[in-house]
Amino acid sequence: MQPAKNIKKPRKAEVNYLPSHPAGETEDSLESNRLELISETKKKNNSRVINEMMSRTFSLRRQEIVGQAPSVADLLERWPALFEPSQICEEFLRISGISLESTFMSQLDRQTPKLLSLFNAKGGAVGQRIRFQMMTLIQDPSASVEKRREVVLRCLIEYMGERQEDLISVHHSRDETEVHAELGSCPLKIYMCHQPDTIGIIIEGQPVVRGVANLSKACCLLFRFTYALDLKYPSKLVHTFEIYQRLFVGLDPMRPKPSSKYANLLTKLS
């Protein structure tokens, strides 16, 4: 499989957006490796072999994803290992050269005091919604790091003029199977349900990850998926994802020209 002549260019500062095949490899040899990889994913305690094979077939996968834009359902069938959380981490590293989670979380924590100050000063209806979210921290000043991150990420969506409901779907009285059915038409969503307590991710109506530890990890994981699957940022959450990319991860911080909302936030944080 060769890249199309009119192949789209990197949108989000991908270092290895569309790599060439390794020396000595062909499309046929890499396809053979892909089939072997599927067999390897069915074995236990096989993460090292899987990672090596995922690295070897990276160019084939990228040419397929970028050149053909297959559905998530097709990718789940052809590349099941890609949807393992550990491999999503590795794929983002292959594409961007950045170890995402440590970078994302450290920058989120670093910006948290200033962000909380901005949230407290926000007025109007948006300010009211933000303060409702912040009640968790007001009532429990010793809240865990994970809870503080969740509150900040929720408030940040509202602060940027977007709706957290467009990213996060909360279900108090439905089990996970019912939630999957309800969100079957969603292009992209983090869901949280309480029978039992679990967090997962839906993309193109497909449950791609289940059992995520907390919301901040889910946001980080979803951001990785936008790179690994070459997804556009959701139109209703473009400013939120711009913050993830530019502020928390440091990818292409000022090019192309940031949105006015992001530039305004950056000025207030400086």
Helicity, in percent? 55-70%
Q: What's the SSE pattern?
A: HHHHHHHHEHEEEHHH
Structural class: alpha+beta
Low-pLDDT runs? 1-6
Beginning-to-end CA distance, first to last residue: 47 Å
Beta-sheet strand percentage? 5-15%
Average pLDDT rating: 93
Overview of this protein structure:
The structure is a single chain. The chain is 56% helix and 10% strand. The chain is α+β, with helices and mostly antiparallel strands. Helix 5 (85-96) crosses helix 10 and helix 6 (100-121) crosses helix 8 (145-159).
In short:
The protein is α+β, with helices and mostly antiparallel strands.
Any key phrases for this structure?
alpha+beta; globular; four-stranded mixed β-sheet
Task: Describe the secondary-structure layout.
Elements: H1 27-41, H2 47-56, H3 58-68, H4 72-78, H5 85-96, H6 100-121, H7 124-139, H8 145-159, E1 168-175, H9 176-182, E2 188-195, E3 197-203, E4 206-209, H10 215-228, H11 238-248, H12 260-269
Parallel strand pairs: 1-2
Antiparallel strand pairs: 2-3, 3-4
Helix pairs in contact: 1-2, 5-10, 6-8, 6-10, 7-8
